[in-house]
Amino acid sequence: MNKVLLGLLVGAVLGAIDGGSAWFTPAVRAQLVGIIFGSTIKGLIAGVAAGIFARKVNSVPLGILFGLAVGFVLAFIVAYLQHGYYFEIILPGSIVGLIVGYATQRYGAPTPATR
Fold it and tell me: For a designed S-S bond to 51, which of 3, 25, 101, 110 qualifies (C-beta 3.0 to 4.6 A apart)?
């Protein structure tokens, strides 16, 4: 499967799971649908970024590091805008980026060689 498409799919699924983990924070259960939607979008962005990076660089450790960095930055932006819940937002967001970075490098189809 194409690396960008794989990143898109894995990012969306893991982003939805990340948003669903907000259920364990009772203070935000009323906004659960919005959180799941926002986390899915965040996962999509991280997945596409990791897929594009995986097309350019063929290195699993660098892909993991890049995915972790993108997930961290996106989650930090969301946490900063919320003025709180930094740990609860940044930790799962970073893990989503890490997994997406690994998946795009490891399981994405290699790009065809150019002449």
Answer: 3
Going by C-alpha positions, the residue among 79, 113, 2 that lies closest to residue 48 is 2
- Among residues 56, 49, 41, the alpha carbon closest in space to that of 6 is found at 49
- The Cα–Cα gap between 33 and 16 comes to 10
The burial class, CB within 10 Å (0-12 / 13-18 / 19+), for 3 is: buried
The conformation of residue 24, written as its DSSP 8-state character, comes to: G
Kind plus residue range of the DSSP H or E element containing 84: none
State the SS3 of 52-66. Answer: HHHHHCCCHHHHHHH
Cα dist. 77→3, 4, 25, 59, 81 in Å? 25, 23, 19, 27, 6
Q: Is the pTM of this model over 0.85?
A: yes
